[in-house]
Amino acid sequence: MLCEECGKNPATVHFKKVINGNVTEMHLCEECAKKKKEFDTSFSIHNFLTGLLDDIQEGPVKVDYIQATKCDKCGMTYGKFRQTGRFGCNHCYEAFKEKLTPLFKNIHGHEEHIGKVPKKAGGVIRIRKEIQKLKNQLNIAVKNEQFEKAAELRDRIKELEAEIEG
Amino acid sequence: MVKWLEGKGPESDIVVSSRIRLARNLEDINFPQMITKEAAESSTQRIKDAILSSNSVLTREFEFKRLREISELDRNVLVEKHLISHTLLERPQIGSFLLSKDEKVTIMINEEDHIRMQVLLPGLRLEEGWDLCSKIDDVLEERLKYAFDEKLGYLTSCPTNVGTGMRASVMVHLPALVLTGTINKVLQAVTQIGLTVRGLYGEGTNAMGNLFQISNQITLGESEEKIIEKLKNVVLQIINKERKAREKLLNSNKVQIEDKVYRSLGILKSARIISSKEAMKLLSNVKMGIDMGIIDEVDKEEINKLMITVQPANIQKRAMKELTQFERDIKRAELIREKL
Ligand SMILES: [Zn+2]
Ligand SMILES: [Zn+2]
């Protein structure tokens, strides 16, 4: 396959984005990919975020949102985030919240983290996630009529719930 | 030189290395893009201390280095050896890193995120890499408060890393798939299931030395174990395809393949001027020859190392001075002759 950008070199960098269910694929040669700058050390799609952000708005992005919305912790504006594809601090996630959920959905296909949780900071979070996991297992156990196992799981859930409240 | 390549890993006839990288940020300091000099110094000290003054056995392994105290040439040598990232070089005034003595672990400070830790191992060893990376993460987290959101997970500078903050990647050598022309089909299939492929050291046209890096694209909504499992499964399938292609080549074009391998070795052993591009191509052919059992007179580990040490900054480092391209091509030929 040849590079879609220059049409000369073989495409060695391939990626895909999904916008409103429409799949767009890009196949570039390393040179053209480099020029696009978003392929820095590993891969990333920073500069395509701008495109993504615009595509996933219901209508065109309101100019006043771009200019007026600003993170009050680090001073990052939504407009600058759109340009660079990078947040200025952890609070930016809160400041631009309403625009981010569809963005995450587009990049990752998901909205919620289910992986590792920090031990110290995430004490309660870990327990809550653990409870959620046990509840899922409980449902399966009940469905399979494994009542002994279900009772065990229910007790464990109660214990954990008490731990959070206590 | 290139310590992390020492020793053989599983599937090393095709997989050169496995890498796990985790992105983390401190809660109370702006991300590196918006950081002040003072805050950058504070994050540096805290991250450094979290490792060097922790009680973990790991910590005695690390050495701390500031980018601004390292020459530009040495910085590029580290990038070519995959020990630090190119992105870290963008902020030489605030960037620093901790490197383990065996060169398998790097903790970069003030890269795109406050913390970018990576574990780099030879062969296909993703689970082991994740295990080690997660342990280092635990050591850091004992003393640092991470930017973490209950719903979104680890908060990162770029939305493409949010969630696990994990990028797992595998570097594979796929000469037979390239030779038989099936590589694009394979790569396309890989990208369709949410993984990314890039050619390594690509300068324009092809992946140099037939090396490709395959990594996960999704970081949110899948657990680290799941991401690794998926990547590993795909890599195993690619390994299988590459082995079949090698077999096919041996069955149908044995003499041509032998000729290619021996000619490549001949040139490498006798050339007086060689570009990094040509060297990579020929080294790839020789590596394929070893992995296919055509030759056994050359040490494969040495070939793997040469694929890194023939890069421009490494050649200059060896000569201990800056060189013109022509001078580099001469030194490169010297190095290869010496090692083979
Ligand atoms: Zn191109
Ligand atoms: Zn902010």
UniProtKB/TrEMBL annotation, chain A:
Name-wise, this protein is Nucleotide excision repair protein
What the entry lists under PANTHER family is as follows: PROTEIN-ARGININE KINASE ACTIVATOR PROTEIN (PTHR38430:SF1)
Q: Which GO terms describe its biological process?
A: stress response to cadmium ion; stress response to copper ion
Q: Which SUPFAM superfamilies match?
A: C-terminal UvrC-binding domain of UvrB
Origin species, per record, is Caldisalinibacter kiritimatiensis
- Name residues in a coiled coil: 124-163
Which residue numbers delimit the UVR domain?
128-163
For molecular function, the Gene Ontology terms on record are:
cadmium ion binding; cobalt ion binding; copper ion binding; zinc ion binding
Q: Supply the alphabetized keyword list.
A: Coiled coil
From TrEMBL, chain B:
> Could you tell me which PROSITE patterns the record lists for this protein?
PHOSPHAGEN_KINASE, PHOSPHAGEN_KINASE_C
What InterPro entries does the database record attribute to this sequence?
Arg_Kinase (IPR023660), ATP-guanido_PTrfase (IPR000749), ATP-guanido_PTrfase_AS (IPR022415), ATP-guanido_PTrfase_cat (IPR022414), Gln_synth/guanido_kin_cat_dom (IPR014746)
* UniProt GO BP: phosphocreatine biosynthetic process
**Which Gene Ontology terms cover its molecular function?**
ATP binding; creatine kinase activity; protein arginine kinase activity
Metal-binding as a keyword? no
Q: Any idea which positions bind ATP?
A: 17-21, 82, 116, 167-171, 198-203
What is stated about the way this protein's activity is regulated? Appears to be allosterically activated by the binding of pArg-containing polypeptides to the pArg-binding pocket localized in the C-terminal domain of McsB.
Gene3D superfamilies reported for this sequence: Glutamine synthetase/guanido kinase, catalytic domain
How is this protein annotated for GO cellular component?
extracellular space
Keyword Chaperone attributed: no
Q: What is its EC number?
A: 2.7.14.1
What family does the database annotate? Belongs to the ATP:guanido phosphotransferase family.
Functionally, this protein is described as follows:
Catalyzes the specific phosphorylation of arginine residues in proteins.
Name by which UniProt lists this protein: Protein-arginine kinase
Encoding gene (name): mcsB
